[in-house]
Amino acid sequence: MPWSHHSHSGQFCGHAHDKLEDCVLAAIRKGMSTFCLTEHITRSNDDLYPEEVGRDDEATLAKLFDEFYREARRLQATYADHIEIFVGFEGEWIREASLTTIQRLLEKYELDLFVGSVHHVRTIPIDYDIAMYHDARSAAGGTDELIFEHYFDSQYAMLQALQPPVVGHFDLIRLKSDSPNGSFRAMSGVWDKAIRNLKYIAEYGGILELNSSSLRKGMVEAYPQVEMCQVFLELGGRFTLSDDSHGIDQVGLNYDRMFSCIEKAGIDKLWRLTRARPACPTDARFPEVEWHAESTSELRRHTFWTI
């Protein structure tokens, strides 16, 4: 039964590894019922990651996404009897022009979902390495508090412009900070902006992913922190599961530890994407799918936890 709504592969992502089909097969072996394929969107030549510089450009990344889409739909059909596969992308909000890029992808492809994420502040990556995080922090004013505020403002702009069905790693900004496991509450301006964003997500009906990737990177809680989850729960917000895997060794990784965060936050219901039933209300942008609730107690009894 467990699922992931956010994943990558080395076949279509320069900082991941393994073929996309092998990642799907890993999810099947682990007994996952739903696996969403969400490779990164095409970025401009100004926004290439270090491993892409000199190798890729905007045109080659666009071609790569075309190839990803065709392969993802093939895998969706090939393994339909074993697992529900959904096809989308992770939309990176870097600058105002990101809106046009994402809108073009939504117009060009028939998709099942997309994940709305922020990986940059002042157009500089904030989760790639410490050096880049420090560059972004300097550009934002020189302190963690200031870059946190910039991050949540960028995220709010993304949320308002796109209303993504899934919001990715809500508090990613803490990963490379001086206190990655610290609380935002001590920074009143940061806390207020984070709560503003959570309120907006709850209002439009977005799904907040519980993302286990922070745990493999040395953090003690999943994204978002338990205190953020508790606020979102009080707002009536909905949660789903994601591993943000970048290869077969990360599929479903640390879900047991993430479940401890779920229990600590008091979350008793999680949502997964499924095929839409006739006459069932859906997001008009994605009429073929709908969100279905599962109790955490039922989820915990699944054989996934013993495999």
UniProtKB/TrEMBL annotation:
Pathway: Amino-acid biosynthesis; L-histidine biosynthesis; L-histidine from 5-phospho-alpha-D-ribose 1-diphosphate: step 8/9. The keyword Hydrolase applies. Gene3D superfamilies: Metal-dependent hydrolases (3.20.20.140). One of its GO terms (cellular component) is cytoplasm. Its EC number is 3.1.3.15. This is Histidinol-phosphatase. It catalyses: L-histidinol phosphate + H2O = L-histidinol + phosphate. The lineage of its organism: Eukaryota, Fungi, Dikarya, Ascomycota, Pezizomycotina. Coiled coil: none annotated. Belongs to the PHP hydrolase family. HisK subfamily. One of its GO terms (molecular function) is histidinol-phosphatase activity. Pfam families: PHP. InterPro entries: Histidinol_P_phosphatase_HisJ, PHP_dom, Pol/histidinol_Pase-like. It comes from Baudoinia panamericana (strain UAMH 10762).
